[in-house]
Amino acid sequence: MVDLTALSEGVNTVWVLVTAFLIFFMQPGFAMLEAGQVRTKNTANVLMKNLLDWGIGVLVYFVAGFGIAALAGGLTSTGGYSVTEAFAYVGDSGAWVTWLFGAVFAMTAATIVSGAVAGRIKFRAYVIYSIGLTAVIYPVVQGFVWNGGLLSPDGFVGAELGVGYLDFAGATVVHMLGGVAGLVGAYMIGPRRERFDDDGNRVPIPGHSITFAVIGTFILAFGWYGFNVGTQATVLSVESGELAFAGDALGRVALNTTLGMGAGIVAAAIVTGFWKGKPDPLFTANGLVAGLVAITGACAYVEWWGAIVIGLLGGAQVPIVYFWVVNNLKIDDVCGVFAVHGTAGAIGTLLIPVFAVGGFSAVQLGMQVIGVLVIAVWTVVGTAVVFKLADLTVGLRVDETEERVGLDRGEHGIKAYPEFTDSTGIGRERGEGGTTDD
Length: 438
Description:
Elements: H1 4-24, H2 26-36, H3 43-75, H4 83-86, H5 96-116, H6 123-146, H7 156-161, H8 171-189, H9 210-229, E1 236-239, E2 242-245, H10 247-276, H11 281-296, H12 304-327, H13 337-350, H14 362-393, H15 400-405, H16 407-412
Antiparallel strand pairs: 1-2
Helix pairs in contact: 1-5, 1-9, 2-3, 2-5, 2-9, 3-5, 3-6, 5-6, 5-8, 6-14, 8-13, 8-14, 9-10, 9-11, 10-11, 10-12, 11-12, 11-13, 12-13
């Protein structure tokens, strides 16, 4: 006789594994997207940071991060905590699949920041940051929201309001965190030396490959189905002695994810078309990602038409916020991660109660506002501390000569494109591949 419970648990476990593998495949997407938006002389450095995000990140998240997430959940809720139980997963084979699914989310958060600080951060400083984010900054937020902590129904804030914070697959827990951390890091390091002229006006520094950037974006979109649909971890369940398939829940998440992505593309193309006279392919690609980020927290909770609106807002705001950051704040966020991940994640998550399947809830909206603020403040403080620590120990920024020659030569001793550089390692300074930020 077939054990239906064992069968459903087996199918659900394999489903989580497959979707975790899809999320891992987002890593080459991030690598290509970021590499395409930097100069040829900094390409290998960006790729190296993406490699180390994964290599160091999974080790740190295994020995510390996953356990700290459990502690953060217990310490900020009525449930209590146990240090021994929090780290029991290390020797519990039954918990390793859950750990892996958490790890690929943590690596996504870490990778986002590398695009904001590209072209001038010391590699050793970036490694320190990556350790700090995967060990503490991200796990604490994970604990607050997904491990029964501060913002959950049993957390101190959630219990007070009677509702838990809604973020289905990490629009704020993962993406806004990464976008805010990138903004703080870019501010603390300062702009690339040629980013602004003597009058403080921005000077375009084109990336070297629009092809890399767009292909990387499509790879991200593919992996995103694992990110969102995979978070619907229960595919089969046993109800009244029979197997039940969660087709409706899976369908809603898949549909809303797709609609949000499409709307983000269209909105970014329209905004740049009206603003610049011609639609910009790089901003359109970033609009795709922003549409996905915006719908990530909401995809399980909102109506399909709400997903379209959320995606449209996520994509439309990308060029607006990007130019506000560079023109008004004078912060050199190279890949626009604050606009693509930070504000897009916040907007989509805040709007969940507005487009919710069950109707509008003022209390839930209040909880969403509190949650976004808590995550943002924690991320700003945590990131500032880690970057300051890196500054005091190894220094944050490469010197002027190394920045001029390029981080590929200065930090790694290689040239990503030796045929396109002169004897000093310097590539063509303008129009290397046609991507622009104007």
